[in-house]
């Protein structure tokens, strides 16, 4: 997709503060440090529109962006960061579940996994909610450049098995080499057309 315009719209924690649901929407989620901001900046073709490595402990927000005045991309707060205060940690589940249930324009959620790590219980919890709320899931393995090419197939298989998803559901991605960017856009396009 050729991005001619990308803009941040607003941050919100609850539906009353979400921007109007004017465009089809795709959300992005993953553990803190998985590479979500980096991936979003690659997709948005902006160097730093999405802040990388948000400071843990800060209030967690849902950030809304609009592309080409046609598509809404949503950056959900990262999860699983050990140092986040319990009060902040406890807000994450209800905030994300409410978002998944209440956004009529949500076409799919892109769930990110780090190629070097196994999926954790909070990743599996999110997958359960996606199934429960019938949100189509696009699975991405980030930081593919961090391991040798010879390990790609084995890492993808291990992550897919632990996540309980088919291997071919996963796109291998790298923000550094931009590997997987076109494939991810294609998968998003398919989800938008459903
Ligand atoms: P977020 O917390 O999920 O938003 O993660 P960030 O996008 O801030 O990335 C966390 C760290 O991983 C940063 O130091 C990034 O530079 C690095 N990173 C993200 N994506 C990639 C990638 O594809 N390849 C490599 N080598 N590093 C990456």
From TrEMBL:
The keyword Disulfide bond does not apply. GO terms for molecular function: GTP binding; metal ion binding. Its cofactor is Mg(2+). Keywords: Cell cycle, Cell division, GTP-binding, Magnesium, Metal-binding, Nucleotide-binding, Septation. InterPro entries: G_ENGB_dom (IPR030393), GTP-bd (IPR006073), GTP-bd_ribosome_bio_YsxC (IPR019987), P-loop_NTPase (IPR027417). Transmembrane segments: none annotated. It holds the Pfam family MMR_HSR1. Residues 22-194 form the EngB-type G domain. GO terms for cellular component: cytosol. One of its GO terms (biological process) is division septum assembly. Belongs to the TRAFAC class TrmE-Era-EngA-EngB-Septin-like GTPase superfamily. EngB GTPase family. Necessary for normal cell division and for the maintenance of normal septation. This is Probable GTP-binding protein EngB.
């Amino acid at each position: 997709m050729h991005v001619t315009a990308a803009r941040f719209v607003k941050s919100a924690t609850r539906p009353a503060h979400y921007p109007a649901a004017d465009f089809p929407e795709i959300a992005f989620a993953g553990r803190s440090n998985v590479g979500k901001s980096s991936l979003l900046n690659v997709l948005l073709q902006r160097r730093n529109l999405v802040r990388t490595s948000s400071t843990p402990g800060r209030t967690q927000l849902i950030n809304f962006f609009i592309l080409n005045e046609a598509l809404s991309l949503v950056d959900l707060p990262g999860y699983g960061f050990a140092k986040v205060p319990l009060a902040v940690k406890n807000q994450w589940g209800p905030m994300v579940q409410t978002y998944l249930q209440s956004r009529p324009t949500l076409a799919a959620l892109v769930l990110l996994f780090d190629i070097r790590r196994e999926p954790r219980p909070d990743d599996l919890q999110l997958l359960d909610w996606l199934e429960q709320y019938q949100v189509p899931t696009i699975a991405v393995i980030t930081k593919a450049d961090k391991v040798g090419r010879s390990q790609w197939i084995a890492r993808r298989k291990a992550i897919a098995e632990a996540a309980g998803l088919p291997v071919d559901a996963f796109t291998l991605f790298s923000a550094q080499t931009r590997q997987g960017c076109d494939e991810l856009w294609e998968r998003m396009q398919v989800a938008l057309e459903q």
